[in-house]
């Protein structure tokens, strides 16, 4: 695995001081994306667990000493330490992969989420919620905060658990889920993306008016108001647990105008971002 990780288009290493971790059973080591035009990866293995998901490209894969099987966007692979995976693209098209390296005894239990897939390979929708979740994980690891590294680990496990609930052992057919839970989860997972009613409604297979009506029904807030409030809650965590500047936090939460972000934060929270950070300092020391 090391030789393709070195070619990763983007990579973020986690804060790894084990002495300060409260969650010892699952630790994220690194995440990133790999784009490789040649695309042929043979004998992928690692001393830690590897999670891979194909973002672009079709071809075949071979797990261990098994036979070649077709792979496509949305194919997920969970590779235990020391085991081997081969990926071979169709016609030299290459692969685009997102990956997470992790360690800990929870790895084997996570495999149990996908008990029907003997070789730990399953299929998800190519544009599912996992894309937003991986972006959030990436942002948390970028903060270089121990608390956010642990939060990223919990979100990573939730992402895999959610995959196991919504997709039945490699099937691309989502299992039934609560309408309210699906809508609020989709909004909550989009806090690191620009506010886009049309995109969110399309991901939920409903019209924008229906989405707005349901969000108000479930939360008592207008869609944009609810979305901004979720972003401000995330901003409070970033101000408390990361050294990022207000400008960096605003950009991470997709506010291009730092002054607008600061005014909105004060309106919702009651303090400016800097005053909120200063107020919280004695609690952290």
UniProtKB/TrEMBL annotation:
Top-rank taxon, per record: Bacteria
Pfam families according to UniProt: AraC_binding, HTH_18
Tagged with keyword Zinc: no
Keywords annotated in UniProt: DNA-binding, Transcription, Transcription regulation
KW Transcription (keyword) present: yes
SUPFAM superfamilies, sorted: Homeodomain-like, Regulatory protein AraC
Domain HTH araC/xylS-type: 181-279
PROSITE patterns assigned: HTH_ARAC_FAMILY_2
Protein name listed in UniProt: AraC family transcriptional regulator
Source species of the chain: Paenibacillus profundus
